[in-house]
Amino acid sequence: MFLFVFFCTLTIYNLVFFPIFAFLFLYQDYPMLKKIIILFLFFYFPFPAFLSAQHNKAQLLQPTCASHNLRDNPRQMVVVQRYQSGNDNNFQETYLFDSLGKLTEYRKRGFGGEKVTAYPLTLEALSVNRQYKFDYDGDVLELRQFDLRGRLIATTHCIYGRGGNLVQSVEYTYHADSGAVVKRTVSDYDKKERLKTVRQYTSDELLLWEEHRQYDRRGNLIKRTQTFYNDNEKETTVEKRSYSFDSHGNWILCRYSLNGTPMYSISRSLTYY
Predict the structure, then answer these.
(1) 228 lies in which domain range?
(2) Domain count of the fold of the chain
(3) What are the tens digits of pLDDT across the range 209-221?
(4) Are residues 11 and 100 in the same domain?
(5) pTM
(6) Torsions phi, psi of 125, nearest 5?
(7) How far apart are the first and last CA of the chain?
């Protein structure tokens, strides 16, 4: 992706400015020093604008319909979660999208209050105690997290494949005072950048727990298996989700069960452009 954007930028630049620079270089009676300066400007000018565009791309957080695995560009999505026991953990979420499929507003109501978030967000607004390192495509290479006293408490390293897709992330959690590694978490992703497996280890590289995920053909999570290890014992929990879909292929009802026991359901109401 980086090379494609780079060559498109360079091609457009050369089509516009190459004749001007060629005329100045070949047909004007300039001293050699001025000609060298002209050549330098010719090759230098495309890069600041290009790198600036990449920088700006990295700074914005703009979820889309695809971020929620939605098809056919809905205008609004209302999500309601209801527990089987009818407890007070029920909540409602509202997502508003523009005609290009970009999330513009998110609202969550429940637990005695309501929260409204407008998009796009900038990473600075989200990362008072975080530092990011990006590649030229605007993908995060490294994330460093600090506590309120400025001590490093976690780093995450992201690994990408040849096509630019996220393949694996490795997170190290540190003791705030000593800086020693407390645990290491390794997450693997499939070809569509969906979380596939997670494994967490102690500082002695002993496996604490692991998680495996399965998806349906539409990309919806249908099964999550977690296994926790304690000495010579292990405990496994199995979450399952089943769905009903609308005519656009988006699910409108999700039924959640834990170890075979129904727990709650989530309904989604979608309106489209």
Answers:
(1) 62-272
(2) 2
(3) 999 999 999 999 9
(4) no
(5) 0.71
(6) -70, -25
(7) 30
